[in-house]
Input
Amino acid sequence: MCGIFGYVGKKNNAAEIVLEGLKRLEYRGYDSWGVVVEDKACLRVERKAGKIGEAKVSLPSSHVGLGHTRWATHGGVTVQNSHPHLDCTETIALVHNGIVENFSELKKELKEKHRFTSETDTEVIVHLLEDLIQTKNFSEAMREAFKKLIGLNAVVSLKGNQLVVAKNGSPIVLGFGEGEFFVSSDASAILPYTKNVAFLEDNQAAVLDASGIKVFNLSTGVEIEPKTQKLDWEPESAELGNFPHFMVKEIYEQPKILEGIIKTSSRQVEELADFIRSSYGAFLVGCGTAAHAALTGQYLFSRIAKRHVNFNVGSEFGYLEHFLTPRSLVVALSQSGETIDIIDSIKLALEKGAKVASLTNVLGSTLYRMSDYKILLGAGPEKSVCATKSFTAKIALLFLIASQLSGTGKEGVRILEQTVREIKRLLDKETVEKIEKLAEKIKDKNHIYIVGRGLSYPVSMEAALKIKEVSYIHAEGFPGGELKHGVIALIEPETPCLVFAPNDETYGGIISGAMEMKARGGHIIGVSFKDADVFDDWIKVEDTGDGTAITNSIVGQLLAYFLAVKRKCDPDKPRNLAKSVTVK
Ligand code: F6R
Output
């Protein structure tokens, strides 16, 4: 969703630094953008609707700048609605992530004496600030203005040579460089300049100028020592390197990430297994791909640990609050750690006195900060909008936790190691070329149906989600047993049907389903440890026990990637989607 990047410091090319920062935030999803710099006590702004692409800004040199990528909520995708917004005197600029729920009421009052130039909720904040600054200093005025807003928001404003920040919602990271300071909605955008960061907490404000960063309690104005941390991501992990797209780069990173998990997570796996063991009612929640990881977890805990861990999607979790007690444990899965439906779910759980554990990829994210117990995925920055490596990292961890719970932790590690070897084989030329050829064969189809049973059911849904997101082909994943209950009506001659048939108890049932689809003319693509007569195409995936859920998912990821490329879609920036969904 929207992205914020601000700079203040020793360099005088703030506009370029901010533009580069915005480019690093592009993956979050946006539809317009803008940059402002301070120039001899005046503000100079450039705003555009559309993507940044190769754009350059022709703004004067400056030591302070602020930029924004906007994902439209209030008002269409126009230059007037893009941020930064200016006050009537054009001396205050402001960018904003979130939604001001009481904006119409505020606008009604402010309209009397201010000139509004956009349809956004954001513009009310800058005019509020304009009024308050008559009697207060910049930072106090910002705190007062922010208190008048209802909703979850993050705001950064530029006036003179200062940036002032306030937040109670969307993420804000502060970067502490050598004589230069940064504010961003995402740590990976700051990474090329410094690894020293502080995550601004809700109800905090910050003031950045050439001398440093000061953090305050938003309500009281009392100064607080910022909690700085060192990012352990390498700057190149957020760059493309030799890959044409982040999606494929991130697919190829998976063996290394899983090896890292095997090597470093044993203590955390044991602790979370203990948490689950001592809970009375454990729940797994996630959204989108993370929901598929959570559902995979439900199967893994049942199969391996003989334990029922309930699964639900974040947006539905609130409707199940009646089951929560102080003995419940909610395990939240979220790559970004910022997804609003997950944050709302865990707020609810905490209100009910339940414990919250999280598996997230972002140190210092809201989920990370709110959880009683947390495990970092260690997958490095995930820049492709569609989640790949964070999905398999979550499954690997859930698999190890379930194994630990059942007392077979060592065996779990052995299976995961074997799975990593199989992923490396899959990512070698032969299988990848086969998947690419398959994509060429089916790229013009309108529908793809994907079936799996048991552990392969969430894998099917995830493969369908990947295909939908990046290639815009309608794909549906469903349990093999449901075929006869309706979906088979859609199978026509040459309809691609992807069938996950691992070496487990689902094999017989899934092959029968494949036969039924073939009998209606379906083009059967088997993903299996062995070939079968019913398969028209076969992608071989060696049996690695329950680890096959991971390898099969990678086949789905590669197929989605090649379908996107062959249909000339940008897999990294799918239309209408945002990397982290921070508004409802
Ligand atoms: C799909 C995808 C989304 C995310 C979902 C949750 O490829 O990326 O479905 O998985 O928006 O995001 P996180 O994991 O950040 O909570």
Residues 287-290, 334-336, 339, 342, 386-387, 465, 469, 580-581 surround fructose -6-phosphate (CB under 6 Å). The chain has 18 helices and 25 strands. The domain at 429-572 is CATH 3.40.50.10490 (Rossmann fold).
